[in-house]
Structure formats: structure tokens, C-alpha cells
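user: Here is a favour to ask of a fellow structure person. I have my own habits and do not want them to colour yours. Could you put it straight underneath, so I can go through it closely?

assistant:
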Amino acid sequence: MRHHIEFFRQFRSRFETTGAIAPSSRFLANAMTRPLRDAEKPVRVLEVGPGTGAVTSRIVELLGPNDHLDLVELNESFADILRQRFDSEKRYQAVADQAAIHVCALQEFHAEDEYDFIISGLPLNNFPTELVQEIFAAYFRLLKPGGVLSYFEYMYVRPIRTRVGKASERLRMQALTDVLAEYLSRHRFDTDWVFANLPPAWVQHLRNDDVAAAE
């Protein structure tokens, strides 16, 4: 409950970067981590925008002894909560030596090596189109060839805003749709529909190669 309260407080004060009124449900967390579940080990995992750790809780359960997890979180309050969880919760403590929290924007993050999996909770629909382009460039800069990016967006937000928003918002949503459609057409290999979440969400799974488009 403490995490939910802090999440809602951050939503009210920093809607553009928080983007949701509650942490992701366990059903959304399961969908976001589905490609990781059956992965051959060891793997490197990057979680972007983990918030209070709703999806992180599932990721740490799936990590093997030689896996590595980096978490990039822009919100210092959320980063503090994550640090506390790695210090005090058993399932987090079990992999604390394999994990690192980085408080920065994704575009500013540089890693020692590429990642097998990137799992992102960033609220893309809240961002300017240019920023979304920078974020996707960072995703694919950090992702290994053949690596998997999983991100979510709330169902029908862009189609609704494209139809009923102000003129400037309709233009932004259409431009954002065009940017996402280019990546999805080239790299998407699967989609999960998650109705048991507030609000319901789609999870998009993209692979960093051109084989995914043919499949």
C-alpha cells in the first residue's frame, strides 16, 4: 500500500513521466517478462522506468545466479524505494549483488555491454514525438542483435486521443503512431493483451533483427 500511495503521489506531481495512477498488475508484469521466462542463461536484463518495482518483482524471481540486471529510473523517489526493496525484501536481496540502479534518463545511460532483454515501463504516449524517437534509438543501441524489447501501452489511448483531442494533441498522437508503427512493422514478433490491469494494456515484444518482420 505504501508503494501505491507513493506512486499516486508521483502521478499527481509528475504525470508526464509517471503516466499511470497505479503500479502495474501482476498480470501485466507476467506479460512483460514472458520472453525472459524461458531464456537460456546467463542473460543481461535492463529495466527502464521500473517505478516502485511492480515488474521488477517478477524480474528478480526469474534471474539466474549469473544473470545481471540494470534498472534505469529517472524519478529519485522511486529509485529510493527500489533501493529499500533490494535492502529489505528477500527475493530482492537474493539478487542484490547482480543488480544496479541508475538514476538518469535512458538517453544518457551507457552500459558496459549490450542486453539480451530490455523491459520498459516508460509512458510513451505522454512524451513528445522527438523524445520517443530518441528513446527507441537508445533501446536498439543497448539491445544485442537478436535481443528482445518488451514495452506496454494502455489500450486505445492513441486512437481515442487522435480522434477527440485538441488539434495539437491529434497531430502529436498521429506522429507518435507513425514512429511506433515503423518499429512495430520491422521488429514486432508478438503482442500480449492484458485486461487485468488499470487501465488494460497491450504488451509489444520486438526483436532486434529484421527476421522478426518476416515472421
